[in-house]
Amino acid sequence: QSAMPMAPARNDALFQALGGKPGLQALMDLFVAGLKADKRIGEQFKDTKASYLSEQLVDQVCMATGGPCKYEGADMKTAHAGMGITKGNFNALVEVLQASMDARNIPFATQNQLLALLAPMHRDIITAK
Ligand code: HEM
């Protein structure tokens, strides 16, 4: 059940609104840098290779928004197993993503569409109180 992948997008409108592949690459580079620098959750990303995580996020979001990519990383449950991620950690990550989207001048409606796509993943990612 929790291993269910995201449903593929029916069109690429959200992918285009995010600036296509170059837009996503710029966004995710900023996002991962923001995660590493964040006082609340930066520690959890200290051993993460930024370029690697950024590429995985680009592929994941590109595919989920109808773009021409294939995400080949782990499913969200497997990827985050044993990390003890809390609701507070998850909300902090969402705030960093919002700040990154603001910095890229991504319109609010587009931001909300991406967040709506990612929000249900909390079930597979949050494993601790
Ligand atoms: C909607 C929210 C999230 C999404 C979409 C997401 C997405 C991803 C993806 C695609 C990967 C790469 C998996 C792979 O390499 O196979 C990953 C790894 C990881 N995630 Fe998340 N994640 C989310 C939330 C979180 C949260 C809240 C934390 C902790 C605060 C977190 C910490 C990590 C860490 C530490 C890794 C391993 C990175 C590495 O390879 O070193 N994630 N995540």
What is the overall number of helices? 7
Strand content: under 5%
Task: Report the top-level CATH class.
Answer: Mainly Alpha
Largest sheet: none
> What is the typical, i.e. mean, pLDDT?
95
End-to-end separation in angstroms reads: 22 Å
| Helical content class | 55-70%
Ligands (ions, cofactors included) = protoporphyrin IX containing FE
The CATH homologous superfamily: Globins
Low-confidence stretches: none
CATH architecture label: Orthogonal Bundle
What gross morphology would you assign?
Answer: globular
User: Would you tell me the structural class of the helices and strands?
Assistant: mainly alpha
Number of domains: 1
Keywords: Heme, Iron, Metal-binding, Signal, Transport
Pfam families: Bac_globin
Protein name: Group 1 truncated hemoglobin
List the helices and strands and how they pair.
Elements: H1 13-17, H2 20-37, H3 50-64, H4 76-79, H5 87-103, H6 108-118, H7 122-125
Question: How would you concisely characterize the structure shown here?
Answer:
It comes from Rhodoferax mekongensis. The chain is mainly alpha-helical and 129 residues long. The chain has seven helices and no strands.
Explain the overall architecture:
- By secondary structure, the protein is mainly alpha-helical.
- The chain has one domain (13-125): Globin-like (Orthogonal Bundle), CATH 1.10.490.
- The protein is built from seven helices and no strands.
- It has helices at residues 13-17, 20-37, 50-64, 76-79, 87-103, 108-118, 122-125.
- Helix 2 packs across helix 3 (50-64) and helix 2 (20-37) crosses helix 5 (87-103).
- Bound molecules: protoporphyrin IX containing FE.
